[in-house]
Amino acid sequence: MSYSVGQVAAFAGVTVRTLHHYDEIGLLQPGERNHAGHRRYGEDDLDRLQQILFYRELGFPLDEVAALVDDPDVDPREHLRRQHDLLTTRIEKLQKMAAAVEHAMEARRMNVRLTPEEKFEVFGDFDPDEHAAEVEERWGHTDAYKESQCRTAAYTKDDWKRLTAQLDALHRKMADLLAEGVAADSVVAMDVAEEHRQFICGAYYECSHEQHTCLGEIYVADERFTATYEAIRAGLAGYLRDAILANAARHQ
Fold first, then answer.
1. pLDDT digit string (tens) for 155-184?
2. How far apart are CA 193 and CA 173, in angstroms?
3. Is 180 exposed, middle or buried (0-12, 13-18, 19+ CB in 10 A)?
4. What are the tens digits of pLDDT across the range 45-81?
5. What is the pLDDT of residue 141?
6. Which DSSP string corresponds to 176-190?
7. Is 27:62 a contact under the CB 8 Å cutoff?
C-alpha cells in the first residue's frame, strides 16, 4: 500500500511543503510515483520519515539527520535505541526544570497585580518575578529597564494574558519554521524575528536591532533562557538567535 503526500502529511503532523522540501534535498524521496507523476509513499518511506522526525524533534539539523539515517553501519533498531536515550535525558531535564519553577512560584510573593491563582493561569510555567532581582542588577540603570517598569506597572490581568498569547504565537511560528527546515536567514524567518522585536517595542521598551541581537545572544548563552526555548522545540534558542542576527543585518 502507498500513500499520497497529503495523507502522509496528515499522518506525520507535518506540512506538504516540508515533505516536498525533504524530497528536493534527497532526505526523503518517495519510493513511487503514479501515472500523473504524483508522489506515493510506501511503508519503508514512512519508517524513514519517522526516524527523520525523531531526530528533528531532538534538534538535529537536516544535514546531520541525513548522515544519521543514511549510515550503513547503523540498523533501525540502533536508531531507536539512540533516540530513546536522548529523549529520556531530555524528559528528565524538563521534569527537573518544571519542579524548580513550581517551587519558585509557590515560594515567591507576586509583584504584579495578580493573585497567585491568576498568575498561574496567565503565565503557566513561567514566573516573571523569579529573576527580578538579577534583572534589576544587570539592567536597572538602563532607560529600557525604566521604560519597561513604567509600562508594566499599569498592566492588568487581561493585559498580561494578551501579551502572553501574542508571544506564544510568535514562538510557535518560529518553531514551525524550524520544524519545516526553513533557513534562519530566510526572509520568512527574518520577518518573524522582526515581529518579535516589534512585540518587545510595543509591550516593554523601544528595542533597537542592536539591542535585539544582544537578547538573541542571551537566549543561547544563558541556560535558563535556552531551556525555555528548548522546551518549545529543540534547537529553537539558536534558531531564533540566528534569525534575529540575520534580521538586524538586513536593516543595517
1. 776 777 788 889 889 999 999 999 999 999
2. 10
3. middle
4. 998 898 888 888 777 778 888 888 888 776 767 777 7
5. 57
6. HHHHTT--TTSHHHH
7. yes
Question: Rounded to whole angstroms, how far apart are CA atoms 184 and 47?
Answer: 28
Distance between CA 42 and CA 4 in Å, rounded? 9
Largest CA distance in the chain: 68
The arrangement of strands across the sheet holding 3-4 comes to 3-4, 39-41, 32-33
Strand partners, 32: 40
Would you say 28 and 14 are in contact if contact means Cβ atoms under 8 Å apart?
no
Amino acid at 121: E
DSSP state of 233: S
Write down the pTM of the prediction.
Answer: 0.49
Those residues whose C-beta lies under 8 Å from the C-beta of residue 142, and which sit 6 or more positions away, are: none
Beta strands (DSSP E) in the chain are: 3-4, 32-33, 39-41
Q: What is the rounded distance in angstroms from the CA atom of residue 235 to the CA atom of residue 231?
A: 9
What is the arithmetic mean of pLDDT over 217-231? 83
Work out the number of other CB atoms within 10 angstroms of the CB of residue 160.
21
Q: What's 125's DSSP letter? A: T
φ/ψ region of 37 (left if φ > 0, alpha if ψ in -120 to 50, else beta) reads left
